[in-house]
């Protein structure tokens, strides 16, 4: 009976993780189209400033944490309501006080303290910024479809990094699924077209491909390392984690804005109109929600499942190109999109079975 209860709970968690993943897919494609329109029309081609602003906004996650856990209660004086670091426990809804002394068995992981969450956020803030920056910058040179296709190669980086740190294992199913994914990516890449007219197609494709591939590499690294450090969704308050990531990016990485400005990589400039401000704020809200749901989905399922699942942005981006831009791709694109979707279904099915049997 305990085993059945545990399996049922794991099934619910996996289903919730897949729901979050579907939300992330929709939100990321929407965000990519918003930025791509700004870059394509040369209204505000500032991927570094946009990425830094989006990541800095994660600091707002600390506001509810402050009022819930750190702000003293007027009824109890100035210090009695503060939660001591050694008695922080985490559940799916936030932080709850636990007994001051926690004795854990070897097979049960202790909840992360505020100090541990702080250190983890510090270690991940640069990787997080670089991955999002490289993906956003690639939209200057490539279409949304091309960017999502190339970003899907993060599956290979996730598996490679996971294998090196003993988080993933190779088996026949995974290899076949990833080969199918690779073939699908190659098929769709053949439909790649330049995004801008002021450089040659070769230069455009080369720059966009390199940026998207580097972003996929950073994604593969931090997704595996986050799973390695946290292991289970219930151990850490994700709002606290993202809040600290936002603070570190705001406080420590603002000099990078000066660096890219004075080196001429990207001149600092505020949005030129109210409409651009609205687009940037809306995109910021999308990133604010999507990255949180991504982390929850990754911890509720597995890094490889989420990484491959994000490949579903490819057929969604294709549909959006047809509906909003009247862009019709060749049959080879549809075949590649089918392979990507089928690879996700197949690898998710077996990853879920492995998780339930472990």
Structural account:
- It comes from Pichia kudriavzevii (Yeast).
- Helix 4 (114-138) packs across helix 9 and helix 12 packs antiparallel against helix 14 (331-357).
- 42% of the residues are buried.
- Residues 75-107 have low confidence and may be disordered.
- The protein has helices spanning 2-40, 47-56, 62-70, 114-138, 144-151, 154-164, 172-189, 201-230, 238-252, 255-262, 274-300, 303-309, 313-325, 331-357, and strands spanning 88-91, 94-97.
- Strand 1 and strand 2 (94-97) form a beta hairpin.
- It is globular and about 60 Å long.
- The chain is mostly helical and 358 residues long.
- The longest helix has 39 residues, at 2-40.
Labels describing this entry:
transmembrane, 358 residues, single chain, mainly alpha, 14 helices, EmrE-like, transmembrane helix
